[in-house]
Amino acid sequence: MRTVIFRAIAPYLTSLMVLFSIFVLLRGHNEPGGGFIGGLIAASALAIYGIACGVEPVRRAIYFHPMGISAFGLFVGTLAGVLSVFAGVPFMTGLWVYPTLFGVEIALSSVLVFDIGVYLVVVGAIGSIALALEERDRD
Amino acid sequence: MEPLFALLVGALFTVAIYLFMSKHIIRVLMGAAILSNGVNLLIFTAGRITREVPPIIGADSDVLQASAANPLPQALVLTAIVIAFSFFAFLLVLGYRAFQKLDTDNSDEMRVAEPVNESAPPLGY
Amino acid sequence: MSASAPGATFIVLMLPFLAALITPWLTRRLGHNAAWLLALAPAAIFIHFLGFSAEVADGGIVTGGFQWVPSYNVSFSWLIDGLSLTFALLISGIGALIILYSGGYLKGHKQLGRFFSFMLLFMGAMLGVVISDSFLMLFVYWELTSITSFLLIGFDHTREASRRAAIQALVVTGGGGLALLAGLLVIWNITGVSQVSLLLNYGDEVRASPFYLLALFLVLGGAFSKSAQFPLHFWLPNAMEAPTPVSAYLHSATMVKAGVYLLMRLNPVLGETVWWETILPVFGGATLIVGTLLAIRQTDLKLMLAYTTVSSLGLLVMLTGFGSEYAISAAVLYLVAHSLFKGGLFMVAGLIDHEAGTRDVTRLGGLRKAMPVTFIAALAGAISMAGLPPFLGFLAKEEIYYALWATDPWSLAFVAVAVVGNGLMFVIGFAVALKPFLGPEVKTPKHAHEGPVLLWLGPLTLGVAALVAALISPLTHRFISSPMASAISGEAETVTISVIPHMGPALILSLVTIAFGIVAYRMLDRLRAGMASLLQTIGWGPDRGFDQFVSGIVRLSGAVTRIVQPGRLDFYMTATFVMIAIALFAPMAWYGEWPSMPVWPADVQFHELAVFAIAFLGLGAVIYARDRLTAIVSLGVQGFAVALLFMLFGAPDLSFTQFMVETLAVVILALVMTRLKLSASDHRATRDKLIDMSVSLVCGTGFALYLLAVTQQPFNPYISDFFAAYSKIVAHGTNVVNVILVDFRGTDTLGEIAVVMVTGLAVLSLIRVSVGYAGIKIGDNDPDRREETR
User: Fold this and answer.
1) Between vectors from CA C292 to CA C287 and to CA C294, what angle results, nearest 5°?
2) Which of C202, C292, C430, C632 is the most exposed place for a label (fewest CB within 10 A)?
3) C285 vs C295, C509, C714, CA distance in Å?
C-alpha cells in the first residue's frame, strides 16, 4: 500500500482531515457533526498517515501517547460536568457565556467543552487501537 | 417503509447469528460487526422512519418541525456505533493474540480454560 | 412492659463487636495480657444485664429497639424476659472467664489477636440470638453464630481435620439456619407478626393452622442441627478440633444451646401438641442414649466431654418436649447447671492438655499433687455433672426424676432412658475428673505442674458458682429459675427444689443412678472395649455419610459441568441462541400478539430499493464468499448500505459515523487478517450448517416479527417531543441529536466515552503484554497439593 503517490498525498490528506474533523466538532451543536464523528474522522486521518508513512512518524507527530490524549479527553469531559457545581446547579448542567472578541459575539459553553472531551477520547482510543494494530507489521 | 426495514433487520440478525455459531473466530468477529448493525437498525426503526429531514431546528423556528426524523433513537445509536466499534477492535485483538499464542483460530481447539480431559475436582477438604 | 434505657442496651449489644475491632491492635501491644482488658467487655455486659434481674424476677418483660425497615415492619428490637436474661448472663459471665482462659491457653500464639476477635464476634452474635425480638434479627444472628463457629473450628486451618470439621459444622448448622428461616417465614405468614414478644399471643392460631406441621418441622430442623440432635450430632464431636476455649464456650456452654433456646422460646407457640410432645422426647431420648454410649468409647478427654454434651442436649430437648411444669423447671436447672459444669470440665481438660501435653485418659494419672487447684475444679465439675449434692447438678437431676416419674409405660421408658443416660454421664464425669488425678503418677509428654492463674480461674469460678447457686437455691430460683420457667411455659411458675433431699421416687431413682454409675465406672475399660468393637461392626455412621454426601455433590457437579460446559464455543453460542429464540417466540405465542401481515409500502422509491438490495447482497456474500478477504469486503458493503440508509432516512450524523466506523473496521480487519496464516477453508460440516441455519433463521425471523409488531403499535412521542421542544430554547442547540448527546443526556455520554477509553486501554494492554502461558492449570485449588509444591 506504500505507493509513492499515496505517501506523497498522505500528509496533506491527513492534515486536511484533521482540520475538517475540528470543523465538524465545532459546528456539531447546530449542524450535523459533533465529538463522536469528529473524533472518528481524526482517528481515521491518523490511521491513514500510519499506513502510508509508518507508525513512528505518527507517534512523533502527535507527540503525546494516544491513550494520554484519550485520558485527557475524559478528564476534560468530567471537568465540564463538574463546572456546574460552582454555579450551584446539578452535575452536567450546561453553562453558557457570550464574550465578545474583536466585536464578534462568541458562544462558549461547558457543553462545547464536554464535546471536545468526547472528541479527544475518541481520537485517542480509536487512534491508539489503529496505530497499535498497524505497528505489528514489523514483527 | 417499516416492513422493509424489519426484513433487513431480520436478515442482519440471521446472518450475524449464523456467523456467531461458527467455530472460527474470524467468522464470529464478522458476526459481531453485523450484529451491531442489526441492533442499531432495530433501534432506529423502532423510533419510526421519516424520509430525508434530519432532526435539526431551522433558524426561523424554536422547535423541531413535525416532519423531521425522531432524534432520540439517533442519539442512542450514535454512541452505540462507536462503542460497538471499540468492542469489535477488542475482540479482534483478542482473537489475534489467541491465534498467536495457540496457533489456531478454531474455537474447538482453544482449550486452555476448559481442557478436554479435565480432572475431577479435588475431594479433600 | 417497659422500655428502659434502650440506648444502653443497644451499646451493650454492639460492645463485643467493637471490642473485636480493636482486639488485633490491643493484642499486638499487650500480648496475652490483653485478655484482662478484653474480659472487661463481657463483664460490663454481665453487669448491665444483672441490672434487669429485679424487674424480670417480678415477672416484668423489657423490650426495646429501633425501626429498621419500617415499610416491611422489620425492626432491630430486643426482648428481655427470664429466658433471654438467663442466657445473656450465662453468655457474658462464662464469656468473661473464657476470654481470660484463652489468654492463658493460647499464650504466645501468633494469631492470638485473631482468636480473641473471633471469640468476641461470636459472643456478640450469641447475645443477639437470645436477645432478639424480631425474626429477621434472630435469623441473622443465628447464622452469624454458625459463621463464627466455622471460623473458630477452622482456627488451626493448616490441618485438614480442622478444615473438615469447620466445613461440616457450617454445612450442618448453616443449613439448619436456612430451615429455621423458612420456618420463621411460615409462622410470619400464618400470624402476620414478626416479633417474638407479639407472637406469644398467637399460639392457638399457629397450632390450628394447616401449615403448623410445616412450620414445626422447619423450626425443628434449625434447632436440632444447632443443638446436635441425633442423627445430626456428628458435627459436634468433630468440632473439638477447635482450641479448647472454643470447645468450652461454643460447643458446650452456649452456641449448641441455641437450638434448645429456640425450642424453649417457641414452646408456648408450637408446643402442647401431640407432634411436639412425641418428636422432641423421642429424638432427645435417642440423642441422650447415643451420646453417652459413644462417649464411653472415647479415650480423649475432650471427645468424652463432647459426646456427653450431645447427650445433655438430648436430655434438654427431651425435657422441653414433655412440657409439664416440672419438666420445664428441670430443663431450666439442668441447662444452667450444664453450662457451668461442662464449661468448667472442658477448661480442666484443656488445662491438663496444656500442662501435661496429652489429653488421652489412658496416658494420664496421679496429677493431684502436681495440679491441686485443677483437681478441685475438676471435682466440682464432676460432682455437679454426676448430680451429687450439694451442687446445682443435683437439684437439676432431682427435678428431672420428679418430672419424669409416672407409672404409665411411656413415662417409664423415658425414666429408664434418663437413668441410663445419667448413670453413664456420672461415669464420664468422674472418668474425666478422677482418672487423670488419682492412681500412680504416669510419665506425661510434658512435666506437669499447676497452670497459671489465667487458666485455673475460669473452671474454679464455675465450680464455685455451681455450688453457691445450689446452696442459696431460694435466691437462684427467685432470680433465675422461676422467671425462666415462666417464660418457657408462658405462664407464671415457681421452682422450689433445694439441696435438702426429699424422700420419694426421685430420690430412689437418684440412688439407682448412682449405684449404676459406680458399677459402670468400675467396668469402664471393658465397656469401652465393647463399644469399640460394636462400632467396628456397624462401620458406617453419619460422619462417614457426610463425607459421602460431600464427595457425591462434588462428583455430581463435576458431571453436570461436563455436560453443560463441554468447552466448545459453538455449543455455548447455539444454546444461547436457542434460548433467545424461545424468549422471542414464547411471549408472542402465549399472548397471541403476532404482528399483522405487512403490506408492501406504496411509496418506496427505486434508489431506496437499490440500497436495500445492496445490503442483502453484501450479507449473502459474507456467508457465501470462498475466501476471507472477499467476506471482509462484503462486510464493508453491507455496512455502507446501512450507512446509506441512515443518510436517506434523516440521520446524517449516524450516516457519517457509520461510514467512518465501517471503513476503519474493514481496514483493521484486513490488516490483521493478512498477517494470520489461517487455513484455507473454514466451512462447516453439513449437519452443523443445517442446525446453525435453522437456529439463526428462527432467531432472525423472531427479531423481524418483533420489530414489525412494535412498529404496528401507535407511536408514543412523549420523550422525543420533549427534546424537540426544548433543544433550542433551553439548551441553545439546533442539532437535536448532538444536544441530547452532550447536554440532555451528558452524564450518559460521559459513561460511554469512559467505556471507549477503557476498551482502548484493554486493546493496548492485550497487544503489549506478552502472554506467558506457563501451563497454569485452572481449577487446581487443592490446598494440600499446593503446600507440597511450595
Assistant:
1) 95
2) C202
3) 15, 17, 73
In tens, the pLDDT along C37-47 reads 889 999 999 99
Q: Nearest by CB to C657, from A40, A91, A94: name it.
A: A40
Q: What H or E segment, with its residue span, contains residue C601? A: none
All structural domains of chain B: 2-52+70-109 (1.10.287.3510)
Which residue of B48, B74, B89 is in closest CB contact with C763? B89
Compute the average pLDDT of residues C357-385: 85
Out of C380-389, C561-570, C605-614, give the one with best mean pLDDT. Answer: C605-614
Q: Is C774's pLDDT higher than 60?
A: no
Q: What is the mean pLDDT of chain C?
A: 85
Query: What's the rounded Cα separation, in Å, for the pair B123 and A132?
Result: 46
Q: In chain A, what residues touch C735 (CB-CB under 8 Å)?
A: 28-34
CB C318 within 8 A of CB C421: no
The predicted pLDDT at position B16 comes to: 94
Cα dihedral across residues C230, C234, C240, C245: positive or negative: negative
Closest CA to C68 of C142, C135, C144: C135
| pLDDT tens-place string over residues C185-195 | 999 888 888 88
Please name the residues between 82 and 101 in chain B that touch chain A, using a CB distance below 8 Å: 82, 85-86, 89, 92-93
Q: Which residue of B has its CA nearest to C711?
A: B46
**Residue C520 banded pLDDT, cuts 50, 70, 90:** confident
Q: What is the pLDDT of residue A53?
A: 85
Per the omega criterion (within 30 degrees of 0), is the bond before B54 cis?
no
Please tell me the distance from the alpha carbon of residue C169 to that of residue C624, in angstroms, as a whole number. Answer: 61
| Rounded Cα distance, C512 and C564, in Å | 64
Indicate the pTM of the whole model: 0.71
Domain coordinates in residue numbering, chain A: 4-138
A107 φ, ψ (degrees, to nearest 5): -90, 115
C541: left (phi over 0), alpha (psi -120 to 50) or beta: beta
Helix (H) or strand (E) holding C62: strand C62-69
User: Measured in Å, how far apart are chain A's first and last C-alpha atoms?
Assistant: 18
Which residues touch C70 (CB under 8 Å, ≥6 apart)?
none
Cβ partners under 8 Å of residue C78, min gap 6: C9, C13, C63, C64, C65, C84, C131, C132, C133
What ranges do the domains of chain C cover?
288-316+329-522, 604-676, 727-790
Q: Do A129 and B56 touch (CB under 8 A)?
A: no
> Which helix (H) or strand (E) is B4 found in, with range?
helix B2-20
